[in-house]
Amino acid sequence: TEPQWRPRRMIPMRRTWVRKGSFTNARLPQDANLRSLTKAEDDFDKEPERRNGLKALLALYTRRSELDHADSLVERWIDKEPLDPDALTSRADSSARRGMRNDAIRMLGSVIDARPDDVKAQQRLARLYGWSGAREQSCRFWVALAEFHADKAEWLAQAVRCNRNLD
After folding, report:
1. Cα angle 134-140-141, degrees, rounded to a multiple of 5
2. CA distance 149 to 4
3. C-alpha distances out from residue 54 to 38, 99, 102, 148, Å
4. Which of 46, 70, 98, 122 is 20 to 30 A from 129, comparing alpha carbons?
5. CA dihedral of 154, 147, 149, 93, whole degrees rounded to 10
């Protein structure tokens, strides 16, 4: 006698898809980014005294997350011009990227002392205070920006929002 074949109970199966994400912070293709970095380094080596070349190279290092190279450039810049507000802002940005918010706040405060009409520095400082949890200080800067620039509706809205959240 032959063993009878019986179908076993079927187990339903389904396909499982696993997604693997990745990201890059480079806005340009890698080859183009590398070419522009090499060109900026060459331009800076030819004329190290030009501020535009230094800023361009610093922006490329920052975009590529080469913070050590960016920090060394900022330090060279500050050694030449210790009270330059742009250099101090770059140093504050570097500190903020490294997670040292209190140092960044202190440095941006000195930039605002040197240039009280620098709106971008005041906005950065307001955001830094907000991120560090000091909402009251953040609101002070938003209110000041709204008072001095009454034509900017978005700053007024931010100041009102900020004050409402404090109550």
Report:
1. 100
2. 90
3. 13, 24, 26, 32
4. 70
5. -70
Query: Residue 22 has what DSSP assignment?
Result: -
Q: For the segment 46-90, what is each residue's pLDDT rounded down to a tens digit?
A: 887 888 888 888 888 888 888 888 888 888 888 888 888 888 888
Give the helix/strand (H/E) hosting 118. none
Across 162-166, average pLDDT: 82
- Asked whether 130 and 138 are in contact (CB, 8 A), the reply is yes
* C-alpha–C-alpha distance, residues 3 and 114, integer Å: 95
In the predicted model, is pLDDT for residue 30 greater than 60?
A: no
Q: What are phi and psi of 84, to 5 degrees?
A: -70, 120
